[in-house]
Amino acid sequence: MKNKQTLLIIALIVIIALAMVGCNEDNNDTTPPTVTITNANQTKTLAPDLVIELSATVTQGTNPIQSKEWTLKNATVDGVTPVFADKTAATTTVTGIKKAGTFVFELKVKDTTGVEGTATVTVVVNAMTVTANIVVPAIPITTLPATTLDFGLPSSYTGYNSDFPNGCITYTLKDNKNNNFNGQVNAGDSTLGYVNSEGITFTQTFYYNNQVVGTRSVLLRFSTSVGGRFSAIDANLADSEATITPDGSWATRGIIPPITLTLSKTITEILPPPITKIVTVSFPASFSASTNINFSPTSYIPENGWGDFSQSEIIYTVTCTELSKTYNSSTGFNVNLSEGYTEGNTYTFTQIFKVGSVEAGRQVIKANVLFGTFASLRDINNVALSPQAIPSITLTLTKPGTW
After folding, report:
1. What count of Cα atoms within 13 Å lies in the side-chain half-sphere of residue 248?
2. Could you give the CA distance from residue 208 to residue 206 in angstroms, rounded to a whole number?
3. What is d(CA 41, CA 53) in angstroms, rounded to the nearest whole number?
4. 319 has a pLDDT exceeding 90
């Protein structure tokens, strides 16, 4: 009897052991979910509105599917936070990619027992190229003979945008005698070495990012017979062809033609839109002949309040071109005749406003020195201002934005 009981117990143990082995074999035979990417590895170009489509099919394995989730598994650049339209859907879209690079997205699927199936898709985002056409306006020479020629400021050019902001263009100006100018040519300057009836070529060379993007030249005829002036727009014209009309003006007219500068650059990161603020700056309401010019602003009035800006962020300077003299907040903005300004000369004052290193606006004021005072105020084209006062100026303050 005792032996029969022992045999029975052994038999039960064997049956249980075999059952456990069968269960393990069943578990080992569990099939995981199958994940198949339906839009294989992709190549995109960086853009502000870039949308990446992720698509996959999911097939159930042994057990029902419990969850699906897309993630950014790895990337060749840091600081990228993708935004999934629905990270739990087999097909979804991704936005928020603001940098060029290689991105690997993974879809992970789990069944009810925790068994996983995964698949990845690689998306290469190439850098984008942006361009702009900056137009340098023509310079009409409406009065000849001309004592001075003003080639203007880059801030007057058109075509700037957020990728190529105002201030990104600079230029040099020189003549064929290797004289360099700061935008303005004074024909009466005896140090230039001009000879009567000589043709003088002036060449503007334009730069973007320290690279030459265009040149513009004009050939003028210098004449001492008309008091050291440019007597014709073309050096080949004789004095007889640049005659004086009955009204006392010179018959020869001309124009320095416009030029379009085509700019291009590669962008590997899309920055957030800049924060801007419009501010109106006003100056003393009137000006009369005096030994001083007061360039101090009387008020800064922001549109709809200061917001993200403050008046203290604005850097303001006034520079006299002819004397290479700069006035700023530490030296004051009161220009005094005794500082080297001489009788009979015209002086060019450039007002520049910046926030940090970014220019917010500028304007040019000219003033003659007559009878021991600063006389009439004029604009960049040498036209008398009416009323005689420094005009108000509208600034566009700019600083980097955030996503």
Report:
1. 0
2. 7
3. 11
4. yes
Tell me the domains of the chain and their CATH numbers. Answer: 34-126 (2.60.40.10), 127-269 (no CATH), 271-403 (no CATH)
Residue 172 · residue 209 · CB < 8 Å? no
- pLDDT category at 167 given cuts 50, 70, 90 is confident
Contact 244, 251 (CB under 8 A): yes
Q: Say if residues 136 and 328 touch (Cβ distance below 8 Å).
A: no
Confidence of residue 200 (pLDDT cuts 50, 70, 90): confident
Nearest residue to 379 (alpha-carbon basis) of 393, 367, 370, 369: 367
Q: 37, 58 in Cβ contact below 8 A?
A: no
Query: Do 171 and 207 contact (CB within 8 A), yes or no?
Result: yes
Determine if the peptide bond prior to 297 is cis (ω within 30°): no
Distance CA 152, CA 146 (A): 16
Residue with tokens 């100006």: 173
d(CA 210, CA 120): 43
The alpha carbon dihedral of 58, 62, 68, 73 has a sign of negative
Confidence of residue 128 (pLDDT cuts 50, 70, 90): very high
